[in-house]
Amino acid sequence: MSRVQANLLLLLTGAIWGMGFVAQSSAMASLGPWSFTCARFALAALTLLPFALWESRRARHRLAPREFAGFALCGAMLFAGSILQQLGLLSTTVTNSGFLTGLYVVLTPAAALLLVRRRPHWVVWPAAGLALVGLLLASGGRLDAMGGGDALTVACAAGFAFQIVLVGLFAGRSGRPLTLSAVQFAAAAALGLPGMLAIDGLQTAGLIAAWPQVFYGGCISAGLAFTLQTIGQRWTTAPQAAIFLSSEAVFAALFGAIFLGERIAPIGYFGCLLILCAMLAVELVPLRWPLRAKTGETTMETAAR
């Protein structure tokens, strides 16, 4: 798969996640945050299980325990980002949540440097800043008064940033994207189960009432989209992936206008244009000015081709 095709998969992932904001917002009327998070990832794990078993039967080598542990670590970061986002939505606005979640655009390159000591292409830093400004403008150009829910959402962005870096690392090493997805979903569901039982309680009526949102959140937004993310990140870099995934804010605004009757301010369209420019920059600039590695080193851009 070429890097262009991989980034297009990540763009599709952003579109699916953007629609997921609609499902996520409406589900909270019937379910608590722990119940929704646990249910969606349990459903996602069950959806991916047959495909993961098929992938395992075709694989030439068995996965090492360390790889399974890495997959579970991806799930832990996924759960951390998801539950903090859901809890933050209880006391912050959708506008604040959409923008602050998008902070993973600038946190991902920093996380890549911290975890794997890999230097991104220089264009990633200005492109990340451009995407961040675009996210702010797409959310209306302002933030409401900051509160405790906003702090939780900033922490959720850190969780997603580390998840993006870890997925890129373990998906490339193992060559088992479907198994990685299934394991990380199962880990996220398992981590959410105690909170669901202890805090939300068993919300059978709520699950029945919100089953369309849970289905979309589990099978489509998680099962399909996170698997597309895992596949795409085998062929591109984590910082570039974060910028393409940030398109979810654009699609969230679009689907919110279509399905929820929300309006996009004129400045929001300009923000969407800035995000598009950031995506084009990280795709085209490395082709013209490739990052040169030191002798004996392999850059992420080289490995992605």
Automatic annotation (TrEMBL):
<keyword id="KW-0472">Membrane</keyword>
<feature type="transmembrane region" description="Helical">
    <location>
        <begin position="205"/>
        <end position="228"/>
    </location>
</feature>
<feature type="transmembrane region" description="Helical">
    <location>
        <begin position="39"/>
        <end position="56"/>
    </location>
</feature>
<dbReference type="InterPro" id="IPR000620">
    <property type="entry name" value="EamA_dom"/>
</dbReference>
<keyword id="KW-1133">Transmembrane helix</keyword>
<dbReference type="GO" id="GO:0005886">
    <property type="term" value="C:plasma membrane"/>
</dbReference>
<dbReference type="Pfam" id="PF00892">
    <property type="entry name" value="EamA"/>
</dbReference>
<feature type="transmembrane region" description="Helical">
    <location>
        <begin position="178"/>
        <end position="199"/>
    </location>
</feature>
<protein>
    <submittedName>
        <fullName>MFS transporter</fullName>
    </submittedName>
</protein>
<feature type="domain" description="EamA">
    <location>
        <begin position="7"/>
        <end position="139"/>
    </location>
</feature>
<feature type="transmembrane region" description="Helical">
    <location>
        <begin position="99"/>
        <end position="116"/>
    </location>
</feature>
<feature type="transmembrane region" description="Helical">
    <location>
        <begin position="240"/>
        <end position="261"/>
    </location>
</feature>
<keyword id="KW-1003">Cell membrane</keyword>
<dbReference type="InterPro" id="IPR037185">
    <property type="entry name" value="EmrE-like"/>
</dbReference>
<keyword id="KW-0812">Transmembrane</keyword>
<feature type="transmembrane region" description="Helical">
    <location>
        <begin position="152"/>
        <end position="171"/>
    </location>
</feature>
<feature type="transmembrane region" description="Helical">
    <location>
        <begin position="123"/>
        <end position="140"/>
    </location>
</feature>
<feature type="transmembrane region" description="Helical">
    <location>
        <begin position="68"/>
        <end position="87"/>
    </location>
</feature>
<feature type="transmembrane region" description="Helical">
    <location>
        <begin position="267"/>
        <end position="285"/>
    </location>
</feature>
<dbReference type="InterPro" id="IPR051258">
    <property type="entry name" value="Diverse_Substrate_Transporter"/>
</dbReference>
<feature type="domain" description="EamA">
    <location>
        <begin position="149"/>
        <end position="281"/>
    </location>
</feature>
